Amino acid sequence: MSNVESVHTGRKPNVVFIIADDHREESLGASGNAIVRTPVLDGLAAEGTAFSNTHIFGGLTGAVCAPSRACVNSGKSIFNAMIGKDVMSWEHAITIRSDVKLMPQAMREAGYRTHAVGKWHNDKPSFARSFDGGDKLFFHGMSDHTEVPVQDFDPTGQYPPEREYMEHTFSTELFTNAAVDFIAQYEEKEPFYLYVAYTAPHDPRTAPEAYRSMYKEEDIPLPANFMEQHPFDTGDMTVRDEGLAGLPREAGEIRRHIADYYAMITHLDAEIGRVVEALKVKGIYDDTIIVYTADHGLSVGQHGLMGKQNVYEHSVRIPFILRGPSVPAGGRQAAPVSNIDIFPTLASLCQIPLPNEVEGVSMLPVLKGETDRVRHVVCSAYRDVQRMATDGRWKLIRTYYSPATKTGVDRIQLFDLQNDSWETADLFDDPQHHEVLLQLAGELKKWMHEYSDILIETPVLPTSEG
């Protein structure tokens, strides 16, 4: 493990922070997936540390992307970082409170030159107070990958819609080009913080043919938790994402979707390789911390679902890879991590002041080998219909009925992730696991109080023990 200062310059390390859209942790070669091809990300994981048990905090609308990105950039819960707490409120999903200091803002105040490329799915004032510069800025949730409405950096911070122009270079390549150009042209004495936010592998999953042809649908195995239809109402069974495939789910169609998904990921991986190469050509690769993560995962046929509007592992567990100065090589950590912990971890590595209001915790003690975990459990929320808690082995999912939308059901599930990583065997009714159930229910209730959950007065267990 090297010193926090760059090995060549003696200054704080540069940071390249990469965040993907819809990339679940399981869909990485480094995570044991033998089908998807991700040699660049696998290499970063081998040269650094991968936190394999990282979960999103969640969201209160179907657009989980925006609040999840707010959690990453604020280190705070969705209940305390966003404007309002109304379920299904677009303002709550998008708008970060003006008094919340964000990760790039803190880096900027600590002397970093902050530069953004790609997607910013939160409010424009939060972007403006965070970045010194930017290029190919995308202030939307999604678009066709060859019709991308972008803006140039606006020093006024206004970013009115009329400034947008259309780019037809494939989004992943478009954003990579901008990132590579920034690295190549950077000559300032201050270290830089480069935020690269891709829209891949989000649909429409239309990877270039050279990558799509790598995956033959007939060679794609169905996941062990494939179902033709989810057995109960999770609260959002008719959201847009769930209409991307027919019902009941058909094996051939799901294989095609998985092939499309993997092709997008492999293309993304190759483009990240160009960013890595640009750092090497510039001679600053060893002076730069690279972070790779995603806003959330995706079902793509698992549990009979297609989207991310649930709290199964495929939707709430994300990659979190660190590589660079002060990061041990070859580490794979199973410590429970929340995405609100990414900001404090990076702040620790760069030795910059952390805002007092940050609710996440640094994983630096785990990186240093001082402990095997700093959290006992992590939890996630989805709307007013789902909550989950996991200690890494055991996982409780609580589904509620929503009077507001008349969706969901009153149900609890318990899974042994160590022996059932696909979450196929519900152990809720097994008496021998009753104590584990009560323990996790207690942890979830504590979490709901700690972070001011909107369901704070709602029992976790539908019994006197809840």
From TrEMBL:
Question: Which InterPro entries does the protein's record reference?
Answer: Alkaline_phosphatase_core_sf, Sulfatase, Sulfatase_CS, Sulfatase_N
Q: What Pfam families would the database entry show?
A: Sulfatase
Record keywords: S-adenosyl-L-methionine included?
Answer: no
Transmembrane residues, as ranges? none
Has UniProt tagged this entry with the keyword Hydrolase?
yes
Span of domain Sulfatase N-terminal: 13-350
> Keywords in UniProt for this one?
Calcium, Hydrolase, Metal-binding
- Family in the record: Belongs to the sulfatase family.
UniProt name for this protein: Sulfatase-like hydrolase/transferase
Question: Which organism was this protein described from?
Answer: Paenibacillus chungangensis
